[in-house]
Amino acid sequence: MHTLPRDKSDTLLLLGACAMVLLPHFFHLSWWTSLICGGLLLWRAWITLRGQRLPPLWLLLPLAVVTMARVYIDFHTLLGRDAGVAMLALLLTFKLLEMRARRDLFVVLLLSFFLLLTGFFYSQSILSLLWMMATLVLILTVQLSFQYTGLVPPLKQRLRLGALVLAMALPLMLILFLLFPRIQGPLWGLPGDAHGGRTGLSDSMAPGNITQLALSDDIAFRVKFIDAPPAPAKLYWRGAVLNDFDGRTWTQEQASRAAVDAAPHIQAVSNLNLELPSNLNPDPATTVRQQVTMEANGQRWLFALETPELAPTLEGIPVRLTADHQIRAARAINERVRYDVTSNLKPAPSDSISTSGMQQALALPGNFNPRTQEFAAGLRKKWPDDAALVNAVLSFFRHEKFSYTLEPPRLGRDSVDDFLFSSRAGFCEHYASSFVVLMRAAGIPARVVTGYQGGEINTVDGMMTVRQSDAHAWAEVWLPPRGWVRVDPTAAVAPSRIETQLSNVLPRSFFGNLLGGAAGQANWWSDLNDTAALLRANWEALGNGWNQWVLNYTPARQMGLMHWLGFDGFDWRTLIILMLAVGTVVAGSVTLPLLLARNKSNPLDTVYSSLCAQMARRGMARNKHEGPGTYGRRLCASNSPLTPSVKIAVKRFMALYEALQYGADYGPDNKPPAPLMAQLKLLLSQCR
Questions:
Q1: Which residues of 2-121 form beta strands (DSSP E)?
Q2: How, if at all, do strands 244-245 and 250-251 pair?
Q3: How far apart are CA 223 and CA 11, in angstroms?
Q4: Phi/psi of residue 480, each to 5°?
Q5: What's residue 17's pLDDT?
Q6: What is the pTM (predicted TM-score) of this model?
Q7: Is 445 exposed, middle or buried (0-12, 13-18, 19+ CB in 10 A)?
Q8: Which are the catalytic amino acids?
Q9: What is the C-alpha separation between 12 and 9, in angstroms, rounded?
Q10: Cβ(457)–Cβ(366) under 8 Å?
Q11: Is residue 192's pLDDT more than 80?
């Protein structure tokens, strides 16, 4: 088997470490940046294997300038998260083609460490941590490999040493994580684009918006129920309320964002067929307490079951409950947050609505959807009662040939007309939008509510997981004396969507169902799916624990830990003193055994060093490049000033020393046999 020279093998190992650093970034870098970085890595590997010279600076410099200019064109800046990471990735790969001195190697290693750290801008999951630690081990192995000046241990042994170095740093890292004084928010300001790429519901709704989310398995939030979880049909997670309609898109009106004040009316939400309580006090049987862990979504609203009673509390972020029962934060949610909220599934009725609220809930754009306007007028003549008209429209959806699909046809300018009287195929946003337009055209105040419907209980940790695929839109109509009443027209078309998960309504095929059997038929593929579902539940439970105990280690949790340890009334100075004290003990417990082991010298080396010191005093010091054999031959040469008897003793000493040193593995804990050591010391004395 052909063995590569050391310089080539070390360089290829460095290229492998750089590839591991860059690989996670390829998922969010632009295609051309990933292509150039990959091409430069392959170019450097080709140069190494072929033993060719590195490209000249006059070739690399223009290429680097062109790529940096392209980064500026793409991002209009060289600062920020995305532009900065792209710059670092390109600099790292270009530097690999310009390694001409030992200093350049350390520049590459430092760039690798820093670029590896930037991966946490994009993901802080357990998989990201595991990948980072594996990459760290390889980078440390590369650093160790370039430090050896003599015989290099096998790669497996070097990897083990790199892992040992990382393991030695873990206790100190844990101490810093637990005791370093925490502040609310990041220690340094994040770049302005650090929160880009969030997925989830937006503050507007148009045909196709929620349909795109239905294909995403990303987690929107997790819920821990303090009380018994409600039935699936009552799992409506309220988000944004949309009042303005321009003929195609629903948006929020500024007035709907006003905070709760001392208005003469309180708007309430209830089911259409809900039996209202006789008093205004919440029914304990319908009060549901939730602890929500919401992923970052870049929006300002928080989610809760309908209807939240009070605004929850977030650390460092003011939160308010608006008049239309939206929970809104003072700023966009760009990090994972956890909050406690209580909802009442049977809110009190209301028999009044403000004049401005009535006008807002009846407004429609002019010259749009004439057939819908005519149809609504006919319904109003036939059903003068508002509740009867609502039921008539639901019956229309239920009995006509409407279908629930993720692939609806495109709609024209009069989107509601096209949907109601032509395509009759759509997702929840199509039904909610057309229903509200019909209600307003018939003179009934109505609005659109977006959020999530449903959720899946994880059998491992008991947490409910709500995914982006659970995104939903429904309607609310004003029916005195009941107030705002929830009406979900999607339930009239696809009631199973409300009772079960979306996947049960719209099953996804795999290779055209070639591997699956008939519905309800047990086969090996369904067993495999069950196993995969169990593994997924365990993995998500592990991820939830990671989020709760590691990523959500807030100043409040740090304070709770200090109280649990018995430190009451502490401040940041106490934390720093405690951190330094514990850190010193931990660092000492790791480094002291290494220092003691280092001070334990090999007895053979001690005797050999004594001989070398004797000869140095006689003017025949050992050169750094000389081994025992070469040094002994020089001492015993004919022109050596040593006496013949001393030369004989030196020759015997060197022969015995080489046999003991290189013929067996003797160290601090495995000493040579005492008789041989006594003989070696006797020869040392004769050399004097």
A1: none
A2: antiparallel
A3: 49
A4: -65, 145
A5: 92
A6: 0.63
A7: buried
A8: 428, 472, 488
A9: 5
A10: no
A11: no
